[in-house]
Amino acid sequence: MPRQLDPAVVRLVDLPVISDPRGDLTFIEGDRHTPFHIRRVYYLYNVPVDAERGGHAHKDLEQVIFALSGSFRVKVDDGSTTATYWLRNPRQGLYVNRLIWREMDCFSQGAVCMVLASKPYDEQDYYRDYSTFQNAVREKL
């Protein structure tokens, strides 16, 4: 049986939904629905269907990734095990801890990706080279 990624580093997060005849309402509270205080929110839209996003890991930052509209694929890698998630439900996000390589592709037409992040943007927090990321993972072990 293939090894699975540890849920402490990658897992689906379900958000509450309040439904009534007027539609659905979902809300997010940092430190309650995310395992971190939300310091930054950003979103991707108008992404060409053949584009790839991500292609990096973070040294310290944690994220929860949502498909608010449409769908896309997220591939995650802890340096030895990979997993694939399809995000298409706006009330279910993918928690991605630090030191996890992530790639996003297969965006549907009109997809909107929202990301909740534990830290403000800092270019020094990124591993953009896969072999450098793998070295960092090995050093951590």
UniProtKB/TrEMBL annotation:
Q: Which InterPro entries match?
A: QdtA_cupin_dom (IPR008894), RmlC-like_jellyroll (IPR014710), RmlC_Cupin_sf (IPR011051)
Annotated Pfam families? FdtA
Q: Which residues form the signal peptide?
A: none
Which residues are in the Sugar 3,4-ketoisomerase QdtA cupin domain? 10-137
What protein name does the entry list?
WxcM-like domain-containing protein
